[in-house]
Amino acid sequence: MENIKDLKSLLSVPKDIVLTSHRNPDGDAIGSTLGLRHYLEQLGHTVKVAVPSDFPGFLGWMPGSQDILIYDIDKEDVKQALEKADIIFCMDFNSLDRIDKMGEIIEPLKCVKVLIDHHLYPEPFADYVLHDTTASSTSELVHDFIRLLEDTEKIDLNVAECLYTGILTDTGSFKYSTSPKVFRMVGDLLELGVDDNRIQNYVFNSLEEKHLRLMGHVLNNRMEVLHEYRTAIICLTKKDYEYYNIQRGDTEGLVNQLLQMRDIVMAVFIHEQPTITKISLRSKGEFSVQEIAKKHFRGGGHKNASGGYSFIGLRPTVSKFKSILPEYKEALLNNDF
Ligand code: 5GP
Ligand code: MN
Question: How far apart are CA 137 and CA 139, in angstroms?
């Protein structure tokens, strides 16, 4: 594997570059890719951002978001961009199966591949790697990357707004994976003119009436609290999706609500998508949901936020989840946070 700093010479000549991130892109996926794009464009490169599926509307204000290529919508454009690229950056994910068909296209390509990511257990497919699981976000790592290349002065307001958004969303408004470094970095971004209040409003105060009604319904009728395991579960059926006209992204953040209960250590959200049953896991303190996602639900992620899926339908997935709880009972009960 090459040294990430050696990219500086590679980037000293204009290149065709594609920045990719994961399916169902979140604030960090979009923030880190667009932030890096604004930086690379200043160096004279031709840069495209491509993701497998659409991003939520509350990120639509971000500079450059209107040009993002979405594989589900523009298959040919994404394929052509990838095949033409001299360099492909894989950002905020670390195994090519997280980007579905795009991963199959990228895998055999001979171009230079760069990984920038903060999830556990990266797969060794990239030539250059900037990987740190202690980082709050991939956006934090993009800031590190630009500093490593000794280009800190190229962090302009566009770059800063994008990176701030990624840090803001991946830390859940500075609640998780914070560090003195993150707060210093955010201070630097605010000094560049980032309006944190405006961005917080765009990102967090942009719900519609139906979202609050859905939350009320979910907490009242679809929440199960298993006190003996300090675990709470929400599950939503396809019928719920139809009745509340739930779109991709509408359920964002629901699972975190459960952690607001004092005694709850693990929060789980299980819902039906067209072909899979998706599971989202969150935890407090040292209790790791990453292991559960990886071992039982084909997934992974971070210690306190992971996800996975199954092909066995909603009820069987809930039953399966409940059946593994005794294995973790001791760790759940002994968890201090
Ligand atoms: P969410 O629950 O918000 O979908 O995802 C939480 C975290 O788990 C994210 O950091 C995401 O990368 C990871 N994650 C979610 N779904 C999967 C999956 O199917 N496979 C893997 N490896 N990670 C996932
Ligand atoms: Mn992230």
Answer: 5
Domains of the chain: 4-204 (3.90.1640.10), 209-333 (3.10.310.30)
**Dihedrals φ, ψ of 59, to 5°?**
-105, 0
Tokens 């556990």 locate to: 120
Ligand 1 pocket residue status of 309, Cβ below 6 Å = yes
| Atom 7 of ligand 1: nearest residue by CA position | 306
Q: What is the pLDDT of residues 289-319, one digit of tens each?
A: 999 999 999 999 999 999 999 999 999 999 9
pTM of the shown model: 0.89
Q: pLDDT for 4-36, tens place per residue?
A: 989 999 999 999 999 999 999 999 999 999 999
In 10-45 the beta strands, taken as DSSP E runs, fall at: 16-20
Banded model confidence at residue 210, pLDDT cuts 50, 70, 90: confident
Ion ligand 2 residues within 5 Å by Cβ: 28, 92, 137-138, 170
Judge whether 24 and 98 are in contact, CB under 8 Å.
no
- In one-letter notation, the amino acid at residue 38 is H
- Using the structure block, give the residue that is written with the tokens 């998706």: 278
Ligand with an atom nearest the CA of residue 138 = 2
Contacting residues for 117 by C-beta, under 8 A, at least 6 apart: 90, 91, 92, 93, 94, 130, 131, 138, 141
Report how far ligand 1's centroid is from the alpha carbon of 81 (Å). 26
Output the CA 257–ligand 1 centroid distance in Å.
Answer: 17
**How many Å lie between the centroid of ligand 2 and the Cα of residue 9?**
27
Instruction: Compute the distance from residue 138 Cα to the ligand 2 centre, in Å.
Output: 5
User: Do the Cβ atoms of 308 and 294 come closer than 8 Å?
Assistant: yes
Q: Answer yes or no: is the C-beta of 56 below 6 A from any ligand 1 atom.
A: no
